[in-house]
Amino acid sequence: MSSYFFDGCANTNAGQQQYSIFDPVYNRFVIVSDDCDALTKTIMLLSGKTQLYLVTVQQANNWDPNVIDNHCCENWGLSRLTGYNLFAFPETKKSLIIEPVPDLAPNTLPVSDIEKELKNFAFLSHSVIQHWANCQDWFLYEFYDYIDCPALLQEQKQLERQVYHAIYSAVNYIQAEAEVNALMSQAPGRFDNKKIWAQR
Amino acid sequence: MGTTVKPVFISRKVYDFLDSVQANKLDLYRRADFDFWTGSTYVSRARYGSQTIWDFATTQNFQPVLTVNNNITFNDATDARSLEILQIIKQQNRRLAIYWSGGIDSTVILASLIKNWQQNDLSMVDVVMTPSSYYENPMFYKKIIKKHNFNIIEKDDTSVSKFHTHVVTDGEPADKLWLVRNALNYATSLGYNQLKNSWQQEQTKLVDFFQCKFQTKSQCEQYFKLVANNILETGAPVDTVSDWFWWINFNWHWEGHLWHAYAMSQNKTPENLEIFKQRYHPWYNTKLYQQWSFSKEGKASKLFQSAVQYKWPAKVYINEVFDNRWFMNYKTKTGSPTRYASKSHRPGDIFPVAIFQDGTALTSDQPQEVKKFIRSCLLI
Q1: Cβ-Cβ contacts under 8 Å for B19 (sequence gap 6 or more)
Q2: Does the beta carbon of A82 lie under 8 angstroms from any beta carbon of chain B?
Q3: ipTM of this model?
Q4: Is the pLDDT of residue B355 over 90?
């Protein structure tokens, strides 16, 4: 199991939704999470390997809170893939979303090694994205994407880009993880990435 | 434009200039050629068969006899093409510009040159690419293009075609050798094993499938009949549903894709057309590739069992140069971003409505001329 594993269940009583990354080539869910933003960014980080899509699994008619989590999501796919433009360049964020959501359907085919590696990449990406989102005030962090930011933050943002690029262009998961951890151990300015990353 | 000069290529934008009576008459063909076959934003000549939709000029292009009697492999055709292109750049004493989209077809070109050319010949290559090329294939860029130190020319949507300075090649008209998006959608919807069924026995399913594009069932049936009659008339090597999808591409869209680069170039004059013909060598426009597409290997490669096997012989060829499990196991059709394709026109853009055999073009800023052209040249 990946050291970045999380179960991906959503607390629907608290108004959370369960989302998933979907792989149309093998008709499987890669990971599930309640963090739509992190999944969307994960799709982007993995786009050098394959084109993935976002599904709000909770919208499927046969969804049940107990049916799907990250222990078993690869055993599920979609009952229907027609009517979606799954073989086109994603020009907008919306084009990454599969909706309306068809029923969920079991996928009983064996999971190949490359699919397992993709799942590991997805866990790593999701953790890294949440790390950057959580370790500082999100508003300022997003705000400084649009406006020139102070030198202190520039250094941090540069590091973030390097980490993302390491995942995006990596061929091999073990090498990618080692590169990410090496980068995360750097601590520019007041941000102690090493400590925060180690505490995740 | 002389009055006797026939068009070779008509953009879908011609419909902006048709009145409603004319548009209604052409609706089936518009749907068939423009809307149904994604990526075909224009019509051109059907290569085989007597049916004419438009009065197109005949261009001089090799058309193989449609007999399945060869054992050509994709590797043979590709290795042979790399040597032909090397000869062309040496004869013309020019650098080679490769338009690399990052997709399978144009990556085959680079893989083939790396496999078959000497290092000093590779130094004659410029790779023309966009940011989306990198997006589509970052690993090949990082591990192969950078490693071989190819000169990179970044193309944006305003850049002028390189055929004034270079010999130019690109991944055209590769899709016409294979199955593309509509066949993938058909297989995704009904199951990949359906591709091997007899097209004649699957009439009902094919007609039903067309309903996602055509307006009425009658149009779907008419379209099926149009293609079926052409297959029977020409004796095309079409047995399966897979062959059926291939044939539409191979017969109706081959010519149009050869004009695509010229349509996007500036200054369409007879002189520039001559330069273009001399310098532009679309990689897959060869006798061997065409024969391969209905060879034993070519036909078998289109009967894939899952999206993973999409353009499989081409992926295997690339893998000889760059062992990339992601590309082999995941790469399918991505398509080009519309901002880099001719179908994307911003308001106010001037675009070619038609291109003629003498290289001149009728453009969208000449509405009266376009209307005159519609009245005099189109078979309506």
Answers
A1: none
A2: yes
A3: 0.84
A4: yes
